[in-house]
Design a protein that fits this description.
alpha+beta; about 35% helix; binds FE2/S2 (inorganic) cluster; DNA polymerase, domain 1; Ubiquitin-like (UB roll); 5 strands; about 170 residues
Amino acid sequence: MSETIKVNGSDHLMPADARVSLLDFLRHYVGLTGTKKGCDHGQCGACTVLVDGVRINSCLTLAAMHGQQEVTTIEGLGTPDAPSDLQKAFLEHDGFQCGYCTPGQICSATALLDEIRAEWPSDASDDLNAPSLSDEEIRERMSGNLCRCGAYANILAAIRQVAETGA
Ligand code: FES
Ligand code: FES
């Protein structure tokens, strides 16, 4: 087992307890509290992070399983001084109210745009070889991220803006 785990480009000691979830590792061992615990059961998406660029629910996996991989959290996507295009677009479009789901939404949306660029189809894709970014496609791909405040329309607008303009 690897002794370290790379998070946002920095190596951190792997927890001695192999039962620690990736979510708890990020929040309680690394101190990155941007990743949120909503349900701890894989149902809400608040804990979404990227592992080697692919989005996963960090509550459903163990830190010990990712020693050889790159974990990226919301803190690794941008900073208050240098936000990512999606972070800026969420601000511009009011893509949140309480903000609790927002880190997971933005991590998910970041991966969504990469999936579209890679032409990965979803259940909503008309053309399985070249999925387009219809509203239905965005809703389907974001369906794992719940927002109790109901900011869905503005989240969709933010993602659409970045998908269409790249900013
Ligand atoms: Fe992981 Fe809800 S906290 S899916
Ligand atoms: Fe409150 Fe989404 S902004 S849960």
